Amino acid sequence: MGLRMSYVNYKGLVIREVNTGEADKIITVLTAEEGKISIAAKNARRAKSSLSAGSQLFAYSEYMLFKGKELYNMSSCQVIEPNYEIRNDIEKLTYCSHILELISDNVQEGEPSEEVLRLLLNTLYVISKTNRPLKLITVVFELRLMSLLGYEPHVISCVNCGKAQDESMYFDFDSSGLVCKDCLNRKSRSIALLPGTVKALKYIVFISPQKLFNFSLSQEAIEELGQISKRYIKEHIGKEYRKLDYLKQLKLE
User: What is the pLDDT of residues 161-220, one digit of tens each?
Assistant: First the structure.
C-alpha cells in the first residue's frame, strides 16, 4: 500500500528562479509562514504548462505543494498578481531585481516573514502601478527592510543627547543613527542631512505599512537617503549590491 501524499497550501511571491533539466524549474518563493521555500516545478518551462505562470519571477500566487526529499513539489498554482508591468520595463525590472536580491540574501528558510512579504508586495505594487520615483520607492524599501531585519537606525532624536529636531542633523554610521551638530564628532563617519531627509527617515522607520509610500521628497533629499541606505546596508549586511549600477550605464539613474 503506497504512502498518502500530504499537501500544503502557501501564498507567496517568486524571488528567484533556476532552470533545471529540459523544461523544469526550481523557484524560491517568499511566504508569510515559512520565509523562503524552494519548490520544484516540473515542466514549468513548457508553454502549455499549468505551472508556467506561477513559476515566473515576481509572480504572486497560491501554491498547492507536496513535500519531496529535499524540496517542495508544485502540484498546482493559481496566480493572484503576475506583475507583468515589471518584466516589460527595463528600469522597473532592474530596481525590482535589486529588491529581490536583498530579500533572497537576508530572509531565511523556515523563518516567518509576514511583515517582509507585506513590504515586498506593497513595494512591487507601487512600482508596477504608479509613476512615483523608482529610486525613492527603492530606498524606502531598503530602509524599512533593514528595520524589519533588526537593524533599525536610531532616528527619533540625537543618539547622544536625545535632542529631537530636524535642523542641523547628521546621520552617523558609527552610531547607526542621528547626531546633532553639538554632539558630532568631526572624526566620525557621517553625512549632513537636509531637514526633509531627517523627516523622511523618521517617517520610513515608524509609519504604518499602509502609508509607507504616501509622501514625496526633493531630488536632493532622495539622493541623501540613497547614500545613507547604500552605506548602511554595506555596514550591517557586509555586501555592496551592484545591480543598480546597470542603470548608470543606461543613463537611467
Answer: 999 999 999 999 999 999 999 999 887 899 999 999 999 999 999 999 999 999 999 999
Q: Which fold has domain 7-82?
A: OB fold (Dihydrolipoamide Acetyltransferase, E2P) (2.40.50)
Average pLDDT on 117-131 reads: 97
Residue 55 binned pLDDT confidence (cut-offs 50, 70, 90): very high
Which pLDDT belongs to residue 204? Answer: 98
Q: Identical fold at 7-82 and 85-250?
A: no
1 band by pLDDT with thresholds 50, 70 and 90: very low
d(CA 125, CA 21): 33
User: What are the structural domain ranges in the chain?
Assistant: 7-82, 85-250
Yes or no: domain 85-250 corresponds to CATH 1.20.1440.120:
yes
